[in-house]
Predict the structure.
Amino acid sequence: QVQLVESGGGLVQAGGSLRLSCAASGRTSSTYTLRMGWFRQAPGKEREFVAANTPSGGNTYYADSIKGRFTISRDNTKNTVYLQMNSLKPEDTAIYYCAAHAVLRSNWVPTDRGKYDYWGQGTQVTVSS
């Protein structure tokens, strides 16, 4: 029912910034009804939690590894969520995935990959040293 498309990835130097976007579409595409998360996966590693927020954006969750550097936000009028990444480090290099959880569903755990209903195909972020 929901398709997610990430954009904004690319190559940046350490210390630089990048903003990722995730646009939702489909029969049930309004982000007013979706909890949104960002995950990332580097080659040979497990997909790990990065950030998440609730439908109004009022509650946010961050991984310790990026807290203070990344900010998740959303514009529900555009059905889009964002991940602003500042002070990027080489270890941030990964494919970044957008994920969504329907607000009417229960048992949401923002850090748990298995709790999300929809996933995008990812966008590559490469940070050079």
In short: The chain is about 0% helix and 50% strand.
